[in-house]
Amino acid sequence: MHKLMLALAATVAFAGSALADPVRISVGSYNLNNLPFPVAQGLGLYEKEGLEVTVENFASGGSKTLQALVAGSTDIAVGFYDHTIQMQSQRKAVVAFVQLARNSGLVLARGKNSTFDPARPETIKGARVGITSPGSSSDFFVRYYLQRNGLSGDDVSLIGVGSGSAAVAALEQGKVDLLVNYDPAATFIEAKGVGKILIDGRSDDGAKAIYGGIYPTSVLYATQSFIEDNPETIQKVTNATVKALEWMNSHSAEEIVDKLPKEFIAGDRDTYIKAVENAKAIFSKDGHINEQDIKTPLAVLKSFNEKVAAAEIDLTKTYTNEFVGKVPNVAAN
């Protein structure tokens, strides 16, 4: 009888696995803008929706994730909204369907030997500026800052250094003079005495000073064809992710860190908790994409990206709130 029960249990487990909806999700980095995704993992929300998620972390910025999505080697990307605009200018339909981070979260910090002074923008000339990767939103941040101040990308050296501890190490070791990055790197820089934050886009006021408006960043996006062919999968992913956002909004930074997969946590735990606390203001509460805020990334890209500037961009085709609008109103446990 005992053997029969074990056999039945194994059969049920196998059947459950066979019935799970497989989906490949890639993430550009484990910076805190993307935090709701691993929180949803840690809470087991994707499994509760009947999903079998395969995750790939490129750990080098969103541009690599975008390439994987367009190439068809992943189904859904955790990346930045501005990539959907880039893709439309290249006649590729990539659509954001859940917003994770409603604001930039980027900071610009200088190392101990840097002479850059934001009050004198020209002092950035000749600087080695660390970004997550070429073509990433940190890259856009620098180029927009230069353009707004009558400078160009040729006035600095842009160097891809990744995010988190690797990015902080690049600044600490003098491999770069300035660093444009997100939390947890932003908090680590000051906690370790590695450098000083000069421009801070984590607050709404900071983002408005940098970009002229709120700058939505991390979203879940997929190709239009995948969304059309797999609406049930997209809805399940949306349900789980929005529930994670709701859960984050009602829990402390320490409780959030407790739910994270171990590989997501960088540095010492106390400093990481502080980084999460510093970043909480940027997270969406409900996953909705704001049609006014997305005009800011378009304006930024048009200022220096020739393909975007030359294209007729239809923002209504870069996002949808259809799936967020169908999420059951049930909070995560």
UniProtKB/TrEMBL annotation:
What Pfam family does this protein match (any one)?
A: NMT1_2
Its primary localisation, in coarse terms, equals periplasm
Entry's localization field: Periplasm
Name a biological process GO annotation.
Answer: alkanesulfonate transmembrane transport
Q: Does the keyword Cytoplasm apply?
A: no
Task: Give start-end of the signal peptide.
Answer: 1-20
KW Signal (keyword) present: yes
Name a single GO cellular component: periplasmic space
The UniProt keywords, alphabetically, are:
Signal
PANTHER family the record matches: ALIPHATIC SULFONATES-BINDING PROTEIN-RELATED, TAURINE-BINDING PERIPLASMIC PROTEIN
Give the protein family: Belongs to the bacterial solute-binding protein SsuA/TauA family.
Protein name, UniProt field: Solute-binding protein family 3/N-terminal domain-containing protein
Where does this protein come from, organism-wise? Sinorhizobium saheli
